[in-house]
Amino acid sequence: MDKEERKTINQGQEDEMEVYGYNLSRWKLAIVCLGVLCSGGFLLLILYWLPEWRVKATCIRAAVKDCEVVLLRTSDEFRMWFCAKIRFLSLGAQPISSLKSVTNKVSNGHAVHLSENLAEENKHEMNKYSHTQSQQIRYFTHHSIKYFWNDALHNFDFLKGLDEGVSCTSIYEKHSAGLTKGMHAYRKLLYGVNEITVKVPSVFKLLIKEVLNPFYIFQLFSVILWSTDEYYYYALAIVIMSVVSIVTSLYSIRKQYVMLHDMVAAHSTVRVSVCRLNEEIEEIFSTDLVPGDVMVIPLNGTVMPCDAVLISGTCIVNESMLTGESVPVTKTNLPNPSVDIKGMGDELYSPEIHKRHTLFCGTTVIQTRFYTGELVKAVVVRTGFSTSKGQLVRSILYPKPTDFKLYRDAYLFLLCLVAVAGIGFIYTIVNSVLHQVEAGSIIIESLDIITITVPPALPAAMTAGIVYAQRRLKKVGIFCISPQRINICGQLNLVCFDKTGTLTEDGLDLWGIQRVENARYLLPEESVCNEMLVKSQFVACMATCHSLTKIEGVLSGDPLDLKMFEAIGWILEEATEEETALHNRIMPTVVRPPKQLLPDSTPAGNQEMELFELPAIYEIGIVRQFPFSSALQRMSVVARVLGDKKMDAYMKGAPEIIANLCKPETVPVDFETVLEDYTKQGFRVIALAHRKLESKLTWHKVQNISRDAIENNMDFMGLIIMQNKLKQETPAVLEDLHKANIRTVMVTGDNMLTAISVARDCGMILPHDKVIIAEALPPKDGKVATINWHYADTLTQCSNSSAIGSEAIPIKLADDSLEDLQMSRYHFAMNGKSFSVILEHFQDLVPKLMLHGTVFARMAPDQKTQLVEALQNVDYFVGMCGDGANDCGALKRAHGGISLSELEASVASPFTSKTPSISCVPNLIREGRAALMTSFCVFKFMALYSIIQYFSVTLLYSILSNLGDFQFLFIDLAIILVVVFTMSLNPAWKELVAQRPPSGLISGALLFSVLSQIVICIGFQSFGFFWVKQQPWYEVWHPHSDACNTTGSLYWNSSYLYNETELDERNIQNYENTTVFFISCFQYLIVAIAFSKGKPFRQPCYKNYFFVVSVIILYVFTLFIMLYPVASVDQVLQIVCVPYQWRITMLIIILVNALVAIMVENFFLDMVLWKVVFNRDKQGEYRFTTTQPPQESLNWWGKYCLSWAQGCRKKIPKAKYMYLAQELLVDPEWPPKPQTTTEAKTLVKENGSCQIITIT
Predict the structure, then answer these.
(1) Three state DSSP letters for 880-913
(2) How does this protein lie in the membrane (predicted)?
(3) How far lies 991's CA from each of 691, 936, 999, 1170, in Å?
């Protein structure tokens, strides 16, 4: 029974959840109803806030298979609870056999595998599922995804489309003909409507949801309490504040919903044509599409309403909605393995692997190219929220909660305040009972102390700093869709950068070419655009091997392809729709050189006559294109020169990949040396290859041939050398980050040596730093996985040194010089393949490599995400800066992802910089640090405000007095709100500094700061309260008291000639109240100034003009009414007259209080504790280095304390990477020595243990 009660869904995935079954219990429900009535609805609120309690309070446990309600808990670190009701899907009056076939297959997640022969399937399913006669399927919906009960798995599972477990062969064989109307109707019942619905909630619904927030409920409770105590003005002020806050919140939430709704509504109801099984074409609404439908892509393009795989024709697509990159992409039909010469029928279709053949939902098809009679068709693979766009929208609608220490500590701090309030609550009751106060007053006063301790304005105050930071970021062109992450950016201590378009210029310039003839390199050539080369295979490859297309007459495509094509100066012509319609096939794209480049345009006297007999036209038609694949790192085309019988295959891509696919005898012997020379200088190198195809290969055969059959046995033609210049600002920005002790890492899809060269050029790797290349090899032929360690040559070495595995290692790296190496800085570099092998087979090495890994080359998009996760696992706060195209996953996963995109807000990342420059990274970190420090300042100030007011009220309760209504109003509105909203306005400090702000409130320096100020404030307030009673003029105040000797003064008499009975009831007016009120007013302002710190994270507070002016006005006003009383003001604030001498005494108390508070906060704290807390690691090493204070005479005791504090912190570093760095400093085997190999142990694969074996 226990096993049945708990299941796990989405196992191993990001949204993995535990499922518990429950059935409704009537008796439990009756008890809960009674409890709700008895608690006045408060129990209902608690159950509304806590779904786990709600289900457990009203239901009893049941088997998941038969339950009515499911309780879900996420298995991540947040352990969040959700509940969902089980629903039933009725499949109507269909014969049981046929119905069960559909039901079981769908519930198994394989509905889409239905073949045309339903009768045979039904018979098989009848035997397999003869026990199931139900015509209803049980399911629940969570976060817009339906989970159906699966009898085979004995668990709930979501409906999968054609994107999982379907081979490329079956896409053509089983799904290319379309569905019958009956099959379509059944699938629609199961898959539902194909739409991504973002319902904009009504204002009323949003209002109810917002008002039921625990914070507003607490405010409502406070307002009711204050009203019963006749604190009408303050209650009204809080109501107005709450209304403004709720209205603002409703407006922003609704605006976001409307924006998201508008973004996804583009494809909601488009009319599409689908092919049915009987070859008829039916026009339906896009909302009726189901997986398995064959959709006809219209000639004039469309916005895709689903994810579909192309099975005939070619499309040019703009995917900027998904990737943020507006370069059009060519999509070709999925290779059909069944008709390939070299079949690969077992390959499973995957939208990620086959993305060059997949049209994604929300992307715009600009143009199509097609066969006559065989239209451009695509098989629908995913619909609704299962599509790539749907998943993106789900991630926006249901974001993961932001786990940040500040917020966790804030809740902890609030709990502490609640505990303090509890003490005050008990004290008030005991004190009031002892003084025989009536029950009504005891209840109101004891509850009132709770509302004082937990400040109602806290959330608004905490948000202010983030809102101001967001506004400042917008001014410098950084847009933010997740404001809470601004604070987290203040903690970043490592930033990953994409290379191309981020660190380097987006466009590549052609530096030159180096052709190969007879397996030997020719001299490098600068220009390709000349008569000598115009008919060479090398130029033909440059002219044809690309994915360029003309859109509205303008050549567009990949920037690298554009540069290559522009360098040869050829002309590209595409067939028009009319021309294509005349022929029974796709008219090929044709490229030809301009006439002036052809030899016959300038005939010489000694030329052979045949040249003049040749036709003047020299054209090459691109017959078939195999698009560039980042997994394969190459692209190829099949082309034919006009008039030639045989076709040509051309290929370009990463040199090391191309060389492996060429005949060995055509590759130069010095291939690796030449390549290394170029890559070390930071050039982007692309290799070209060619071969003549057999004459038996006809046009039709080429259309169906696999790329593997084409991409082999090629002739190596040479290299294209592209120059990828560093952006002007890159070195300066990286230097700023290094000075601030922020590690920088390069993650790129480019060649490793090029990446290392760029890393050296931009200062990511310093000239004397060592680079260790980790080359990991997977297990093969019974051998375990291994890592070979090579030391990359430094730039000071000879340029003619041999390849990576050479013996030319700096002399310093001899066996006995490991200590020198540890003292010098070293960096690890690896490629994507090695990274994957290390992740799988060497888990215990991953943290060590993360500590010093700087260059990660040839990384696929998902590997970039894995790298960010690996860095986060050793407690780094990771930033990611990329162009948004291949970095979507990493940008989302990082603590602070910033996309360099021209779009105002990219859905790919929390931050988007409008200017494509990495200078936005230090700006973001500076603003993040400023916002984080502002949050600390505000939180500390609000905590002190609560405690000061709490203590004022507690002192006055001891004499059965309290603060007056207008006194509360003056403190809370005039002082607190003004100070909170202006102290948050400090802009960020102009440069990044080496220190980092603490990540949470529970840290030594901050706790000391708060506690020391609490002690100071309580001390001086108590001193004033008790000392006033010791004054010779003191007496228990009554309406006719005359401590000021102003009996004859009309001024003072008139100020007290109002309702004496009211004064007697409330006992507000007395000498203690006046003293406590004045001292506490100044204490709020003193604490505000003490906490408003500037350097090193924010501009000094004197540059925050609004704050300075507000504080000066409040100081002057409070000082004025204290020293020179105004009758009308005293009357409103219920202040009594005290002798002038006592006013001066209060002023002295306040001045001493200010001096002590500022001294403790700004000198003792900053000079001692601040340095201990803020001293952080340098590139992973944890060392305590402190600058010598200006004054030399630091006493022995102070030095001892400081060294003890240093010792404590040095022993136990908090972050894993710091702890690891300490361990590695004393590890004799680390870093690995040159020319050594690390092997994975075969016995304990689970924990990935490894041993180091030195190869002699």
Answers:
(1) EEECCCCCHHHHHHCCEEEEECCCCCCCCCCEEE
(2) Multi-pass membrane protein
(3) 57, 20, 20, 19
The span from the CA of 927 to the CA of 924, in Å, is: 5
- Global pTM reads 0.72
**Residues 977 and 942: beta-carbon distance below 8 Å:** no
Listed in sequence order, the residues at least 6 apart from 1181 whose beta carbon sits closer than 8 Å to its beta carbon are: 1221, 1225
Q: What is the mean pLDDT of each run of 10 residues along the chain (1256 residues)?
A: 68 82 91 89 87 90 88 83 88 44 41 36 33 67 88 85 84 83 86 85 84 80 79 76 78 78 70 84 87 86 88 81 66 74 64 84 80 77 86 75 67 80 83 78 78 74 79 85 81 85 74 85 80 81 85 75 83 66 58 71 41 58 80 84 84 89 88 84 85 80 80 88 81 88 86 80 84 86 83 46 30 35 71 87 87 86 84 88 70 83 60 83 89 85 88 86 83 85 85 78 76 91 89 76 58 42 61 90 92 82 88 92 86 85 91 91 70 45 35 39 45 71 81 78 49 46
Q: Which residues contact 708 (CB under 8 A, 6 or more apart)?
A: 342, 344
Buried b (16+ CB within 10 A) or exposed e, 1146-1167: beebbeebbebbeebbeeebee
Set 163, 229, 340, 498: catalytic member:
498
Verify whether residue 677 is a known catalytic residue. Answer: no
Helix (H) or strand (E) holding 944: helix 920-957
Q: What is the pLDDT of residue 31?
A: 92
d(CA 161, CA 350): 11
Cβ within 8 Å of residue 953, ≥6 positions away: 424, 448, 449, 452, 962, 963
Closest CA to 644 of 717, 697, 710, 719: 697
Q: What integer pLDDT is reported at residue 406 of this predicted model?
A: 67
Q: What is the CA angle 882-887-890, rounded to 5?
A: 100
Read off φ and ψ for residue 7, nearest 5 degrees. Answer: -125, 165
Q: What sign has the CA pseudo-torsion 1158, 1164, 1170, 1171?
A: positive
Per the omega criterion (within 30 degrees of 0), is the bond before 1234 cis?
Answer: no
Taking a C-beta distance cutoff of 8 angstroms, is the pair 328, 551 a contact?
yes
Q: How far apart are the first and last CA of the chain?
A: 60
List the structure tokens of 979. Answer: 């100070």
List strand residue ranges (DSSP E) for 198-356, in order. 271-275, 281-285, 294-296, 302-303, 307-312, 314-318, 329-332
pLDDT value for 100: 38
**21, 64 contact by CB (below 8 A):** yes
Angle ∠(6,7,13) on CA atoms, nearest 5: 140
Using CA atoms of 6, 11, 12, 18 in order, give the dihedral in degrees to the nearest 10: -30
**Helix, strand or coil, per DSSP, at residue 744:** strand
Are 953 and 518 a contacting pair, CB within 8 Å?
no
d(CA 494, CA 1103) in angstroms, rounded, equals 30
Report the distance separating Cα 1051 and Cα 1128, nearest Å: 10
The answer for residues whose C-beta is within 8 angstroms of residue 508's C-beta and 6 or more apart is: 559, 560, 563, 684, 722, 723, 724
Biggest CA pair distance of the chain:
132
